[in-house]
Fold each of these.
Amino acid sequence: MTDIASSDHTRQSTSSTPDRRAAPAMHPAQPRSTVAFNDGGTLPQSSTITSPFWKKYRTLIHDEVLPYQWAVMNDDMDPDMPDDPAGNQQDTHNSHAIRNLRIAAGEQTGHHAGFPFQDTDAYKWLEAAAYTLEYRHDPDLKTIADNLVDLIATAQEPDGYLDTLFQIEMPGHRLKRLQQSHELYSMGHYIEAAVAYHHATGNATALRVATDMADYIDSHFGEAPNKIHGADGHPEIEFALTRLYETTGERRYLDLAHYLLNVRGVDPLFYQRQNEEDGIASDPMQSLPLTYCQAAEPIADQATADGHAVRVVYLCAGMARVAALTGDSTLLDACHRFWNDIVNRRMFITGGIGSTQKGESFTYDYDLPNDTMYGETCAAVGMAFFARAMLSIDLDGSYGDVLEKELFNGALAGMSLDGKHFFYVNPLEADPEASRGNPGRAHVLTRRAEWFGCACCPSNIARLIASVNRYLYTVTSRHGRDVIAAHQFISNDTRFPNGVGIAMTSELPWGGHVRFAIDNPEHASFLFAVRIPGWSARRYSLSVDGRRFDGRPERGFVYVPIEGGNATISLDLDMRVSMMRASSRVRADIGKLAVQRGPIVFCAEQCDNDAPLWLYSIGSESETHYEFRPDLLIGLGTVTVSARKRVLDHDSSPLYRMAEPEDGQTPVDAKLVMVPYFAWANRDEGRMQVWQESRS
Amino acid sequence: MTDIASSDHTRQSTSSTPDRRAAPAMHPAQPRSTVAFNDGGTLPQSSTITSPFWKKYRTLIHDEVLPYQWAVMNDDMDPDMPDDPAGNQQDTHNSHAIRNLRIAAGEQTGHHAGFPFQDTDAYKWLEAAAYTLEYRHDPDLKTIADNLVDLIATAQEPDGYLDTLFQIEMPGHRLKRLQQSHELYSMGHYIEAAVAYHHATGNATALRVATDMADYIDSHFGEAPNKIHGADGHPEIEFALTRLYETTGERRYLDLAHYLLNVRGVDPLFYQRQNEEDGIASDPMQSLPLTYCQAAEPIADQATADGHAVRVVYLCAGMARVAALTGDSTLLDACHRFWNDIVNRRMFITGGIGSTQKGESFTYDYDLPNDTMYGETCAAVGMAFFARAMLSIDLDGSYGDVLEKELFNGALAGMSLDGKHFFYVNPLEADPEASRGNPGRAHVLTRRAEWFGCACCPSNIARLIASVNRYLYTVTSRHGRDVIAAHQFISNDTRFPNGVGIAMTSELPWGGHVRFAIDNPEHASFLFAVRIPGWSARRYSLSVDGRRFDGRPERGFVYVPIEGGNATISLDLDMRVSMMRASSRVRADIGKLAVQRGPIVFCAEQCDNDAPLWLYSIGSESETHYEFRPDLLIGLGTVTVSARKRVLDHDSSPLYRMAEPEDGQTPVDAKLVMVPYFAWANRDEGRMQVWQESRS
């Protein structure tokens, strides 16, 4: 927390709590909290995205994603729409989330529908809408969102509790089956949405519902003997409470988050006892090991990142924020331990995490199967949260590298270029025939679905894209000096609390030139830190006001002292195509190469290449040709690699034969056309492959 | 059916039916049936295995496997024996099969335990015991087996029905839920056992129980309106009935088998209607598609070999025998269609079949994943049945090649060299860490289990090994001439019905010299057909009485006319180590090589090689060194391949990096030590790999 972040440029808000039932459906923006809205140290005063690439996506969020998802949540989609035949993530088209809230609010009758956490469809939509309203003036959207806040407020119980499943179906079972209930998870998502919506619009009801929720949780969880000594089966509330603390300044919320982290796994029998006491004989969740929800042992004792990948990274994001805000070194150690385990041993080159469909989980170190993997969109989004939170603790370029990897690859691939189709699973190798024909690969869809029965991913990618302006800078200090660190090269105009304005123009992801025009009207003295991406560490050039700057990177950042009224910093990054290899400990990638250029990982798709993709082999020295093709979908950079192509054996040929030089199988020269991984499956359905055979 | 096969050398037996309850516990061998015991055209009069390799296995069957399995069936195993922690095939130690039969026989009370087909544990044991008694005089074993027959006879209902689950638990539901009941499957296994036991010992009770069963089935299934117009969910009875027909000469049994094949899949709603009428709301079987049990459409319309692999090959064995005995060309076409689909597109190089654990099933053409595959032992055994049956229809070397592949690889790997541990799943690549750590590979055990809850495999491999003397020759005719075809090179002494004696001495699987000393005292005129294995087709030499024989192979067989009183035929096969490759349509094997020598497929094991196996790469021209190591386990041939070994990256190295020539990753020269696939997992638990990276 630096002086910069808490300067008087921070927006103001009252923390008054008006009559919770009387919040108007629409009202003018309110002044913001007097407490610094720090948002993990990463949110400057205002950041406007000017990147054409990201503006397209953010326009999609406003124009397509939010209306589409709103219709889904209101069950307005065509009920006759055909389901996607492939995969076990059913392509349902109605969320029932609003209906559940209406029933809980007493506005209609009926039963709860959907998953226990169905409420979060609405909350994450609200959060995405909040961010969108910060860059797009839309009174209609605001009216809808205000009305949603009012509905949520009406659905909330007088004591602050809100979970429509339990309210509608099992009011006597509140907080009694935390292993599977997702109650705190759901309320956590509401709190995140409320903080964002309050920040965007000043809506006081939104924030008051959140504080009432947090107060309810605080009154039921804690060290006191009469409280619950366990945590939700799905982490999320911890991170949410840090945001609520940062917005309201209410220390109890931070302490509560801290408690919920510390109690996790301390009593490994907690869930079993709860379930027994609540009369749950068997539940699918109970068949999963406690590692699934990181509750087999205290966090301090958890050596590796195990279990459900989304849970792990949501937990890590919460841990990192609590560690940053409390200085708890045990939590910080856990953050570093899990980070290293994930990033160095359990992450796909796209940033995807989760190596198995079973439990949507991590498996073991270096187990990274490209075709049976999971790589859930939500896990990639959560990894971005984790990376951003770590940047606020420790300015290390590797966090920025991973954040960038998620933004341009693993997370972004979760949404189609039309904003209306989504991947839950993000494989590195796909084959429609395999998804249809081999049950072990049925979870891998080869075209994005319109919706999911478990619809966590579509709204998660929406809220990430809508808030990408919050992922660009970290404001911190170094040796007593203020630091503004630019770690993501997404063009933007930003005004910082210390009065500094930065206009960043970046050619990324297609070009390597980045220019920072720094306007420093108050002649603030600070260090401007520029991340040198890992993929460009070998070759880059940095100049300040036209003169080469020779500062060496320290842990991935070059620090440029800024004193004067203006400065122009130019960074040229290495945009050569790179052939990447995995550690030889990764069995799945042995003898294979991946193609990367800048932050973008490329893949081959069947629609660009006329043979099974596994017939092509490339070498580390293969000639490559990069071309930006404005005609291709939204305009995409493509890479063509000089490859060798094996002969496709005739289907009447023997299945096995002696390998002989003279068997007519000499590969021929060929071209392998590759597109950015995030853009795959936006044309004809077909095979896709990130890792190519290496011919060396 | 040639004259040779039905000559008067065939054993005699009465077909009288003594009082079924009065069969003595032990009695002298009875004379055999007057009908030719043809056994699919493959059983000559008597064949004594002299192969040291197979004698070891057959001694194991007698000395270890049968006593061990008998103890398991009688629930005599140590109840405290620890279960194998890996895998979903539980390592249980008590079968309950005998107890179930005793309860059904009224000799004790209690509930049925185990799977619906638990009876078959006892039946397949009995069948293995029968074959064993043909090569090992053991009055104690015979007493046990006779007593078992008596128990089975007592358990049988007066109307011939026998299925302990239904008798004990649901007598009113007989034949009413054929999709999942396994009633005809179980009775089929009894019939096979009875035919074998009757042949071996003359036990008339055994055969009478079988004919009573078949009569019961015949009275309930058939075209008459009051009969059942559907087939068992698991094929087996069809093949069994052909054996009963061949033993008894009762045409009704063949017609019944034919009917059960013809009715299969004709009414796709048959099972659903049965289940509804019998009040079964849901059953795990019902969630599987009808293709799982080859009942989605009539066999004539089934284009590919789909569903549960064991069901497919059991069905095929039955079809092939019925086609041979009836001349039904529709069934024969289906045999050829399924054979080609399996052998040319869906079979692992070891002979393993079944590409997915889900439904233990085939998937789609060329989908042959080495690490997530199934390759059930029973499916390999069933494939041997199918191959043998096809040889009796059509003397084509490819059937002999596949039969040999199963005998020396896919099937044989199912049992440990101590005869007391078994694989249900036979992967081509295994890693204990993966089996423990990745749920998608948990079905792959990396050490053989002591038993299984579903224990179909141990007794299946036992009955195959115990009867391997029935898999050596096919007696047939060609252009009006008698043919004795030698298609398996397993040393043996055999006397044929036409008086011809053959002493085959073969060095296989370790050496390539095979010698046939033919004794023809009656100067019979016939063609002696010798299979030239596919793996030796490019190089072999054949001599007759010391003179090179120049006859070219016709569809894999060389035909040598025999007229005189004696002949000596020498065959020298190509025992060079071969580097094998798969069709380039097989994604999983692209850029990989397998090592084969003679019929034996080799694999690398962790205990012989000091680095992760995927670090080694070999080339099609790599130097190889074969060595027979008498000290290794039962004495094994090993192959050492000159390989290149990649550097194992340090675990602190980056997970992904640019591939560069100068990154210190140049592979070094190394040796890759390989052992026969069938012998893997008999030493320290560790990684195993059949397909090696190719460096070309």
Note: The CA atoms of residues 422 and 458 of chain A lie 6 Å apart.
Amino acid sequence: MASKEKKQYVYFYGFGKEHTEGDSSYRAILGGKGANLAEMANADLPVPPGFTVSTEACAYYSSHNSQYPTGLEKQIKDKLKKLEKLMGKKLGDPADPLLVSVRSGAAVSMPGMMDTVLNLGLTDKSVQGFIKQTGNERAGWDCYRRFIDMFGDVVMGPTSGLTHEDFEHELVAIKNKYGAAEDTDLTAEQLKELVDKYKLVYKSKVKKAFPQDPWEQLNLSIQAVFNSWNSERAAKYRIINKIDGLLGTAVNICTMVFGNLGEDSGTGVAFTRDGASGKAVAMGEYLINAQGEDVVAGIRTPKNLEEMPSEEVNNAIWVKASKELNRIMKKLERHYKYPQDVEFTVQQGQLWMLQTRNAKRTGLAGIRWAVEMATGVDVETGEKLPKLLTAKKALKTITGSDIEQLLFPIFDADEEAKVEPLLNALPAGPGAAVGKIVFNAKDAEALVEANPADELILVRQDTSPEDVGGMWAAKGILTSTGGMTSHAAVVARGWGKCCICGAGSLKIDEAKKEVSVDGKVYKEGDWLSLNGSTGNVYAGQIPTMSSPVVAAMNGKAAEAKKAKKHPIYLMYKEVSDWADQYRSINVRANADSPKDAETARAFGAEGIGLCRTEHMFFEGDRIWDIRSFILAQSEKEREAALKKLLPHQRKDFEGLFKAMAGLPVTVRLLDPPLHEFLPHSEADQVVMAEHMGVDLELVKSRVSELHEANPMLGHRGCRLSITYPELCVMQTRAIIEAACNVAKLKKQVIAEPEIMIPLVGTRAELDLLEAVVRKTAEEVLEKRGMKVDYKVGTMIEIPRAALTADDIAETAEFFSFGTNDLTQMTYGYSRDDIGSFLPDYLEQKVLSVDPFQSLDQTGVGQLVEMGVKKGRSTRPDLKCGICGEHGGDPESVKFCVKTGLNYVSCSPYRVPVARIAAAQAVI
Amino acid sequence: MASKEKKQYVYFYGFGKEHTEGDSSYRAILGGKGANLAEMANADLPVPPGFTVSTEACAYYSSHNSQYPTGLEKQIKDKLKKLEKLMGKKLGDPADPLLVSVRSGAAVSMPGMMDTVLNLGLTDKSVQGFIKQTGNERAGWDCYRRFIDMFGDVVMGPTSGLTHEDFEHELVAIKNKYGAAEDTDLTAEQLKELVDKYKLVYKSKVKKAFPQDPWEQLNLSIQAVFNSWNSERAAKYRIINKIDGLLGTAVNICTMVFGNLGEDSGTGVAFTRDGASGKAVAMGEYLINAQGEDVVAGIRTPKNLEEMPSEEVNNAIWVKASKELNRIMKKLERHYKYPQDVEFTVQQGQLWMLQTRNAKRTGLAGIRWAVEMATGVDVETGEKLPKLLTAKKALKTITGSDIEQLLFPIFDADEEAKVEPLLNALPAGPGAAVGKIVFNAKDAEALVEANPADELILVRQDTSPEDVGGMWAAKGILTSTGGMTSHAAVVARGWGKCCICGAGSLKIDEAKKEVSVDGKVYKEGDWLSLNGSTGNVYAGQIPTMSSPVVAAMNGKAAEAKKAKKHPIYLMYKEVSDWADQYRSINVRANADSPKDAETARAFGAEGIGLCRTEHMFFEGDRIWDIRSFILAQSEKEREAALKKLLPHQRKDFEGLFKAMAGLPVTVRLLDPPLHEFLPHSEADQVVMAEHMGVDLELVKSRVSELHEANPMLGHRGCRLSITYPELCVMQTRAIIEAACNVAKLKKQVIAEPEIMIPLVGTRAELDLLEAVVRKTAEEVLEKRGMKVDYKVGTMIEIPRAALTADDIAETAEFFSFGTNDLTQMTYGYSRDDIGSFLPDYLEQKVLSVDPFQSLDQTGVGQLVEMGVKKGRSTRPDLKCGICGEHGGDPESVKFCVKTGLNYVSCSPYRVPVARIAAAQAVI
């Protein structure tokens, strides 16, 4: 007991080291806000003094039936006395009252807990003292009525049902009574009347009068903060965000300062560097004679920080405040080694710092900050800047997604801001796109063929592999259904093409060739602008610009040369190089064509992790050969059709091997159900029948035979090759023959094909097809008298495969986790249909994130871990990778590193993202 | 080394205990066949002597690069000498040769290993001795040419490529040359010529002459048997059937006996009891002057065993043989305590027993045998029979599926045998059905409404919940697609209705109202007969009879009273009672209506494990209310529609609670995607729009909005209630109000509702809906002032739910494993689409069984085990059950017992099956 009584629960801060008991290392017990306030106070920055009740006190309170630990009340009262002494004011003093704010603050930023209470300490008596001291009667009554409102709502609301709306009702009434248009039109007298009304409202709900004892006010507020820690909202937030191990929330009691005491007072927010462009110039906004909330409320327009020294009234005060603020901001940035976002108030000429924290920024700004903090050189001007971090530490400050923002064409931000979006939907493919509406993939292809400069936006309910030609032809894709990993989204991201999905408010009438949104109708040929980074869709044209990184990789020689000097390219290069120094895992790309493979290699891919061979079947005339295969009535006819496809596939593989010379290339055998190669509309079926010289009924009957209730769970993947082994034979031949051919080129290419059997759920499937692959490969090699070092492995994308990975690894030489399908089956979510309930799930916090975007480490991840562990139990050197969309998601990449995968594979445009994420998982 | 040399690898048997070294307890090292031969020899039965090379020798050979263990060759030669001495003949003796057969035989019956070689020991010289001894020149050359064929194909084939076809080619040539229609038309001289041809064929492929050294013949044969143990086919068979722990195969070398040496010789097969009806009378067939294969080959028609004493030629010999055979059969049955299936040969008046094994039988016969062996009373005649087993042991001899055969109407077997089936497909629903073809569920309903006596077979591509009315109206269902767990199959089995699925050869033209099979056309109104136990479909009408068990349960009083005296009912009762004594797990039923629940209880169900509430929505006018719900534009409209549904659901629940008074009733909240409640054809949509007085476009647009690419993975299950919590509210109200209502009945019913949230994949889903359920339930109970003991739990049917079961069990009070969906997602197989590849998978042994029929214990079972274990780690008293189709599959039930589930739940008609299986898992 004795030791408990001595335990320190309350920590003072303010006016230098002498008075301050914590610092930023006390985050766990003072919370983020409390620790930062202490840190600033230690650094002699002008922080209004106060004290923090620790998270340990909250933990005791939570686990002891809402009782304070012994001694806490005394400790609070002692610190309050110290504060009163330091400030020369007393809480509730009728002559010169101390006012304080009360705020919650855990070690991790956590919405869902108690809001702030300001102006605590005002009572019917002390308000008079406040007025006397400030000489501002209106401010006095305004502060008081705000305090009653906040205290009633925030502190007493959870138990009494009292809400802000109850007070708002009175405010509206009094404004009507006096014909006041705005709150600010109310006079001191009218506000005083309002205070009386507020007290009545309070009493009617709380069944007690508004407390006139400031200690009671403070004590109730602290308890309310503690209670809010275990509120349903906060508890749920912690479960969803997997926040555990925290003791509770701290409570910060801070001396109030006032920016609304006249023309020598003001308040504002500032950033030490530009959070949008990343430029190393301070930015910010402020308002004279205002309180904090007024800056954000938008009733008055704030001024830019740079105007402060030019204020006409009290110029000397503002010049001094501006200088002081700039000095402090530089100090903070050096101190925290990161650009800061600060709140400040000037009370009658005295500058006070209310908060500092690491600043938010765009991806571009994040990269620029990292590079400039590490190199100490301004990327644009070449001027010297303070060197704040090592490259390794700078790398930690950015994310994979930051670098992605360097890669895509973007809208001119100013131009975009001028236009109101038509709708907002899922940002499924990055960048910006502007084009004329087209409703049909074929039309898009035809239009671009006729006029290659034509800029189109393909607008469809959803897309299928049949549409890829038109999707490629279009600048951007907009669909009304489907989620972040629908066909449209995956294909678009693979190409780095702008795509917005799941725009449910679109009513598409393909027959009429028009689309309506909220009654507004857009026809074929009308212009749309898509922001794939935000999901905003605009009517009309917004100007775009292309990324220097992409221009450097893909552009013509002159363009590339120029782009390579552009600061954006140089920053990209810098951080990518840092990443490659640290990462322990390979990064490969998913690429289906030689062109994709070249792009991927330019972005740093170390091999191909997934080549989806079916995409090769849609190009040019090949579709007719695969259709012949599908219509064939005998194995002989099927083989004849495949014979025609063979040289095309072989040529593609030669191109892939050349592009990836010396690096592994994983080729997945045919995966989608066969009906994806057949047309579904009667008109297209007629065209097909005519083109192939077959009976329309044959086409129709085959389409109907191949129809499946759930194609995702149907006749696809290795199941196709088990029914039609000749498919597997043809594809293996194409791969091995291509490897032989490139080995004989003048400039010899050593291919490293990894032949991947998809959708394996049982070892028997793999055994059967591995035998077919090896037999075919050996026949080719024997005939050619050559050797090719090829591997045979499998996708792990069926839960059962992960569960029986030990057995499967006896045959498989490598595993590639297909986490798209694995997520579909582990959750039972169809990627194409998740759009119908995902919004509800995210809104109601059933899911914190779309599991197709970021790997579900708890469930799906458990299967991945199991697959790796079991697989390596029977084959210790089993090569494991991931080739789902998750391979490009930073959090997922970190999981892959932790799980011991050998590589991640993602779309070419996400290779830079994955490189960064892989490095960050290690450093 | 010394001890190894002494190890016994070869075991002699024949002519009593004196000469016999093994018995049936040596199964592991002598194999099943060898051990049984030794057992018979020990019992002084006339077994042609021989010896068995042990499985241990095979194991050594397999693991030592195909080398015999030291001493094996000598041991074989020693036993051969002993055999020669005992038989007074020598292998290869030109004067009087001993001939032997060589057969493989592991401890577990295992196809895929080496076939039999007969007549070993014949050479160019010894064939003369054989002819001299038997006086039958033709037999000599015929045996010799058969031996060359078998030896060439079976022993030398695997290494040389020589096959039976190579010999067959010569046989055809010589038959053509001499104008012989049948093999038997060839003379001794011609057969001798054929032997020469065969030897040439042999030499050309094997590159060596046919061996004339009988020891070489024997040695090569033994090695070939050993090699066959590791053949691809055999190894695969063992993997698929999970046979491990075996040492290898034994090799049986048996003295040949000949049933083809004249009218005093013959051969046959016999059963100690009737394997079809189960009657305790011996049955069998034989042929005079014939070899074993002739009986099964079907070239000559065998005679019934009872005719044997009436043979005219050599009557005394046959009277004696018949007596002796009957005596031996009785002895064998008593010895093995089970009806036997024997092979015998009479060689020149001497009876030899070549094999005995437990007889195969139908389910009916199996049950009858068990009951009669345990009670010692003939169930039909009341006569005394030998009491062979205790009830417990008798129970072990039957399977759950056996008892199922007692429950369904069946064809008169004799009548069925007269008709050739049209086609054979998947036997998806049991029993027999006869009716007129109808192509449309609505037509079926209308026809039966007009004439309740109308007997119909519903023929469709597949069925959907919309079709249930018509399915109920029809006597049987025949579909061209879908597997054993397609909608049609599951619904039909639930009702105990005959159903055949996946009849791919049916070409249905619904518009023309006709179906063709192999070009034969059947129109609406034509008769079909379906055997749901075999999958046979017949044109025309085959007479059926109904099951006395069902009549006893469900029939009208008089009929039931009569049925309860029927032997089939009495047998059912007997074995069910046995089972209930032993089983440790509860058996519940899946039932969706009060009527189903009553049936289930009559069959012994101890509660309802799954009530699929959606089935209630299709009855009568309710479909219009749920459609109103779906078309509604606001929550208010939706609630209005639900308000109409509420009383219907409540009434159903009252019925269920009454039928299951005192037993738990698990009610699953709405599960299927909403589009299942809307019509898909335009014509039906027009009807719907008119009936509901809404715009056709509204109906169409809602159908199109609800369309999903993969409905199985779409907006269904708990996802519906998260979007529309009012659904969950209505269903909960109906359940709790029903429980209140039945508690107030004069004859009070204590309901035990278990409210089950389907398709949960994350704890957050369950938390959200559990809160809605509890809030609603408490509101109802408070209003009524009553208490109801209800539970809230979840289906575990999504792999992720099993993986995170520890978390989910914090909220769930019970788990019900929905192994249908769990299998779909664990394998990635759609039940509705598996028909397109399952046949290939079964044929190629990728799967040994449809995983929807019998639970995949390796993969899906792993998730079930994990779910139970993890769930009970956070809630030790978690009640766990299974409610998929597997709940009625005997093997799966055993798995459930092993895994520690509290109950299994299956369709009412499978409850008796599950009771038996549950008992067998324990005994």
Note: The CA atoms of residues 534 and 561 of chain B lie 31 Å apart.
Amino acid sequence: MFVPGFGEASPESKAAKNMQDFFTYVAVKIVLAQLESYNPEGYEELMDFVSKNSLNDGDKFCSGLMRESPRHRGLALRILEVRSAYIKRDFEWDNLQKLAFKMVDESNTKLMREYVLETSHMENGE
Amino acid sequence: MFVPGFGEASPESKAAKNMQDFFTYVAVKIVLAQLESYNPEGYEELMDFVSKNSLNDGDKFCSGLMRESPRHRGLALRILEVRSAYIKRDFEWDNLQKLAFKMVDESNTKLMREYVLETSHMENGE
């Protein structure tokens, strides 16, 4: 479906790009949890890098991490691996869709309900 | 799959919440395009509201729009309707997944390739 205001990109590809940044964030969390238990030094190094570099742009984050030191480079490669494996094997795409449907219905109802309640109170107060 | 750092929420529900904000943005674009052709006054009003209120939090945006004036309220209801219809009928969920897989593979390759190229140049320059 054509949606105005997206230029060349479709909403689907824009959403996929957003999700990629999100998956990089998830991969960093997973790698940190793994490091914490068996490689405390790597954990400290990655935590330190995360505290100084934004994860908003996942690719920029990984690109920076690769160039920090040979040890950081190893961590970056691990993050790339994990994000690829995570989206292909672990992330529940069907569940995402189901949750999104549910969430939008609930939010729509909530927004209307709150407004109706608010105006009822106003009328009672008058 | 358990992912650390998400508290009570799963990555799927976090992603669904992000997507809801994105779908609200898409719905606003669709409604604006519809208004532009048959209701220039409504178009101006919505454009004006968009320029003054962030769309980062879709529900907050709609909540504010509902309370702006009775005419804005009509626009808000239209946006709620459109975002619900859009995610259920028009948004291509399968395509999102396909694009996300493709994008992460391409990005991973690109990041590694760029790094390899960069270090090759450095070695050639030495």
Note: Chain B has five helices and no strands.
